[in-house]
Amino acid sequence: MPRPLAVGDADERARFRSYIVHGPHRSSCAIWIGAIADDGYGRFWVARDGRQRVVRPHRYALAIELGGSIDDTVNALHMCDNPICVRVTLDEAQQQPLHVVDGNQSQNLRDMAAKGRGGGRRQPGLWYGPDRAARAARSRRLRAAVRTGWDDAAVQAALLESGTPTLF
């Protein structure tokens, strides 16, 4: 369950930005190259009240774009279906693929169902995506492909190896 998140000071924001590789196009994802959890989503450590706390990088990126904080009612939804994307797109009128957007749990569940990623019975013809382990492996391959800078060929190879070449 998401918890309220306030963005930290300039040093913390600079550290956060150091873990992002932006794709070359306006429609490209911005890939998190920091730590990745076993579920394929990124991890970013912040210090709050003298304690270390792990937050999702896509949630931290959304908090930056929304003025510095988000509460626990705001979900960071991946419209690009790339769990390590941290590119926030708030304006749907931009006529480009959306990436991380703000929403709520109901919207997240509807998006999952529309794309066939939810639980329950599988519907013929819908994409179900990788399971947890495969999603983590794909995220790690994608991170490795861009760790030293964006390389379209390496990105495509990482996606083709995962069997999901249409992330972008």
Please, could you describe this protein's structure?
The protein is of the alpha+beta class and 168 residues long. It has one domain. Helices cover 32% and strands 19% of the residues. It contains five helices and nine strands, in the order βαβββββαβββααα. The chain has helices spanning 10-17, 57-65, 105-114, 132-146, 152-162, and strands at 5-6, 20-22, 30-32, 35-36, 42-48, 51-55, 69-70, 75-78, 100-103. The chain has a three-stranded antiparallel sheet. α4 packs antiparallel against α5 (152-162). The longest helix is centred in the C-terminal third of the chain and has 15 residues, at 132-146. The radius of gyration is 16 Å and the shape is globular.
- Largest sheet: spatial strand order: 4-5-6
- Strand fraction equals 15-25%
What's the N-to-C terminus distance? 27 Å
How many DSSP helices?
5
Shape call: globular
Largest sheet report: 3 strands, antiparallel
Cα-based radius of gyration, to the nearest Å: 16 Å
Number of domains: 1
- State the helical fraction: 25-40%
The arrangement of helices and strands along the chain is EHEEEEEHEEEHHH
Class by helix and strand content?
A: alpha+beta
Number of E-state strands: 9
Chain-averaged pLDDT: 84
Low-confidence stretches: none
Give a brief description.
The protein has five helices and nine strands. It has helices at 10-17, 57-65, 105-114, 132-146, 152-162; strands at residues 5-6, 20-22, 30-32, 35-36, 42-48, 51-55, 69-70, 75-78, 100-103. A hairpin with a 5-residue loop joins strand 4 (35-36) and strand 5 (42-48).
